[in-house]
Design brief:
Blueprint lengths: L16 E5 L3 H11 L4 E5 L2 H11 L3 E5 L7 H9 L9 E5 L4 H9 L4 E4 L4 H27 L10 H16 L8 H8 L3 H12 L3 H19 L4 H7 L5 H12 L3 H7 L1
Parallel strand pairs: 1-2, 1-3, 3-4, 4-5
Helix pairs in contact: 2-3, 9-12
Amino acid sequence: EPEGITHDGVELIKDQSVLIVEDNIELLDYLSRKFESMYEIFRATDGNEALKLAFEKVPDLIISDVVIPGISGKELTHQLKSDIRTSHIPVILLTAQGSIEQQITGIQSQADCYITKPFNFEYLQANAENLISNRAMLKERFISEISVPGNRKTTANAIDKKFLNDFAGLVEQNLGNEHFSVDEISKIIGVSRVQLYRKVKALLNCSVSDYILNRRLKKAKYYLSNEDYSVAEISYKVGISSATYFSTIFKAKYGMTPTEFKKTN
C-alpha cells in the first residue's frame, strides 16, 4: 500500500516528519517501515545528501548512523546544529562505536541522543517520541517568552534564541509598515521564504503572517488601552490600511470591536 494512503484511498497527512540517514539499505528500509505509520519519512544514504535534505525539508527529527559515506553522522550533526535553518532539529545518532569515549564525542557533536547498535526498536522509538514531545513543549515556552521578553529562561540553543530575538525585533520595528512582507524578513534574516516559514512554525507553531497579525493586534490593544488615538489612527499605526478590516479582525480575535474595547478600558 502506498505511503500516506489510508485503506479507503484518502490521503493521510502526518503532522511530523523524520529524516533517517543510513547507508545499510536493509536497516534503512526496516526503520522506514517501523516509523512510517507515525511520521512522514525522508531517507538519505550519505551525509551530504542528508544535509541537503535537512535544509530542504526541515524535518522534526533526524536519526542518523555515525559511520556513513560523505560527511560523518557527527559532522552532519555539528553542521545542522550550527545552521540557523536546522539548529532546532533534535538528532539521534546510531553507532556500533560503544565505548564511553566515543559516546562522549557523539554528545559533544551536539547530538540529543546517542544509541549503540544493536538497539531495541522500542527504546529508539521512545527516545524519538520524547525528543519530539520536548520540542513541542519548548515551542510553548518560546511563544510565552516572545510575547513577554525575558520572563523565563529556556534550554534553547543560542542560535534559536538569536533567531527569535532577531525575528521578533524585526517585526516590532515594522508593525506600522503595511507593506512589510515575508519576503522582506527572509531577505534581512538571510533564509528562503520556505525555510523562514518552517523555522517559525517549528519554534512558534504559527505561520509568519499569523505572527505578524497577532503582534499588530496586541499593539492595537495597547494603544486602545493607553493612548488617546482614534480607531482609524490606531489602524494606521499598526500597519492595517483599512479601519473596517481592522475592526473586523480585532473583533474576531477579542470578541468585541475596537470601539467597544476602548470603552471598557
